[in-house]
Amino acid sequence: MTVWCFGSINIDHFYWLAHLPAPGETLAASAYRTEFGGKGANQSVAAARAGAPVRHLGAVGADGARALAALAADGVVCDGIQQVEGPTGHAVILLDHQGENSIIIEPGANRAMALAPVLAALEQAELDDILLLQNETAFQPEIAEAAMGRGMEVIYSAAPFEIAAVRAVLPYVNTLVMNAVEAAQLRAALDTPFEDLPVETVVITRGAEGASWHARGTPDIVVPALPTQVVDTTGAGDCFTGALAAALSMGALPEDAMQFAAAAAAIQVSRHGTAAAMPTRAEIEALIHERG
Questions:
Q1: Correct CATH for 3-10+39-54+115-291 of 3.30.70.260, 3.40.1190.20, 3.90.79.10, 3.90.550.10
Q2: Which of 48, 85, 135, 286 is the most buried (most CB within 10 A)?
Q3: Binding site annotation covers 106?
Q4: Which residues are catalytically annotated?
């Protein structure tokens, strides 16, 4: 079973600060680094390092060669990635010493791609393949609808949260993944219990409080976060979602897949970076074994 990811590819610019700036405040960074990321690329790398075969669908600009090389180095199949005019998407990520962040995104190529090549690539997908998607690209509803029509399992991260985007995609989603803040935003916007949403499963991540799986007709699954030294929370949700998809694609039961994803996220937040910080399957299994 293949994990397909239709998602963003960004160049991430990291700035380390004593604290996150207040309105009108100017701060000097103590360190600066660039690496490739984007919610889509992060999830693709997380799933690939966790052991799944992964194909990425998306777009880069003329400056995207480094990002493509990094994805390919992790075993992600990149023949569905378009090169468009203009720049690759980028993100400015501000980090404090507790690992908390503020992020600004310029979508670039992620919103400039063409729809037809993505739909054509999806024609190679097989029944029960998994599609991951998020809110940093164009055409999420169209791609989700096409994937569901092919019998794929659609896992949608409602981030960055935009209620109009969520409304458009939800009819074509099997599993909705949100963090606690996004879940509260969705509940407030729709005034609808999660069990009444048109999805089979809702997964909510809660950082240090763990994560939960809510599926119709089955008991809820709650997994604790594994204790770890947090140095950078950027990309933690993407790590969790990519690892969850990888585990499910390899036949894991939901509870085992959730524990696998929680272990992956625990490792990822103990490192600096986004895609580069994603753990391997061996590292995840070793942590699970160590913690019993």
A1: 3.40.1190.20
A2: 48
A3: no
A4: 238
